[in-house]
Design brief:
314 residues, alpha/beta, Rossmann fold, three-stranded mixed β-sheet, 10 helices
Length: 314
């Protein structure tokens, strides 16, 4: 029996990409009640709306996913918005949760918080050993401040807040706007559009040598809900798959799955972002009894199949 079966859980960002899978997982374990605040009703940047939301639904547990997110280009275009909106939402959500007697607060951070040149695999203890990669530092630092806040509130007020650090997520339902999306949906969409238009090539940002680790969204949702059920410590926990892949290899995997037979041109005038990303996931195994189930090739196929069902190639 899940510890959440008698609990009322608020999931901010619950209508979004990750949030929809977290809500689905909560229903699967028969959570007592799940409330997803709508943007049209509660602007979580405004303290008065947060206050009203807590008064309206009186949650036992909060899973805070809401943030302004996007890929390298979106972070470069809107560094101030990414910093302010993500920070102000989290800071006020945590503070009001403490005042309203919330029993547990689960904050989802970001791999962007790690220093630019963190030794691979990234260990949670490395989080403070340098400045994040410049293109997404404002967002990464805003999220990292929420870890500081939760640890401070635990120390001073005994507030039960926990912090998860997922690596880059992917899966069905992700957004694919080429200006704002993350790398996997952007590459899938580029290949689909190129195949539709019979283009000879696609252009991909950077050199292709940077590496990333990707976590299938269903696996991430399972880990986050498991943390809500059983994790009680202040130490952050990495969530990853343990599988590192270069952007070059990833591009050719997606190209093959979509069936695009053209060439790939690398635009080295555009940034690669952080040189390498791969997480040490031993703490998640130890503390949550969790590890990712979906290999990259299987997850990519499911993701490409979803995009093809939505956009097609004919």
């Amino acid at each position: 029996m899940s510890a959440l079966q008698s609990q009322k859980v608020v999931v901010t960002g619950g209508a979004g990409f990750l949030g929809s899978f977290v809500v689905k997982r909560l229903h699967e374990i028969q959570c007592g009640a799940v409330f997803v605040p709508k943007k049209s009703e509660y602007d979580l940047r405004k303290r008065e709306d947060i206050l009203r939301m807590y008064q309206d639904c009186k949650p036992d547990v909060v899973i805070h996913l809401a943030a302004v997110v996007g890929g390298i280009e979106a972070n470069r275009m809107h560094p101030a918005k990414f910093f302010y909106d993500s920070a102000i939402m989290g800071i006020q959500m945590i503070d009001e949760a403490m005042h309203h007697g919330v029993k547990k607060f689960v904050q989802v951070g970001t791999v962007c918080s790690y220093p630019k040149f963190t030794p691979v695999p990234f260990r949670e203890d490395d989080l403070w050993n340098g400045y994040p990669e410049e293109t997404n530092a404002p967002y990464g630092l805003a999220k990292k401040m929420l870890l500081v806040q939760l640890q401070a509130y635990r120390e001073e007020y005994g507030f039960n807040g926990v912090y998860m650090i997922p690596v880059n997520l992917y899966g069905p339902g992700d957004k694919s706007d080429l200006r704002t999306s993350h790398v996997i949906p952007a590459l899938i969409r580029k290949c689909i559009e190129a195949k539709k238009q019979n283009l000879a090539q696609i252009i991909v940002w950077g050199t292709g040598v940077a590496t990333r680790e990707f976590l299938f969204v269903e696996d991430a949702a399972e880990a986050i809900v498991t943390a809500a059920e059983k994790y009680e410590k202040s130490d952050p926990i990495n969530l990853g798959s343990g599988q590192e892949v270069s952007i070059r290899d990833l591009t050719f995997m997606i190209k093959e799955l979509v069936g695009f037979e053209g060439a790939v041109e690398w635009d080295s005038s555009k940034p690669d972002g952080q040189p390498r990303r791969c997480l040490d996931i031993s703490r998640a195994k130890k503390e949550l009894g969790w590890q990712a189930k979906t290999p990259l090739n299987q997850g990519l196929k499911r993701t490409v199949d979803w995009f093809l069902s939505m956009y097609g190639t004919e």
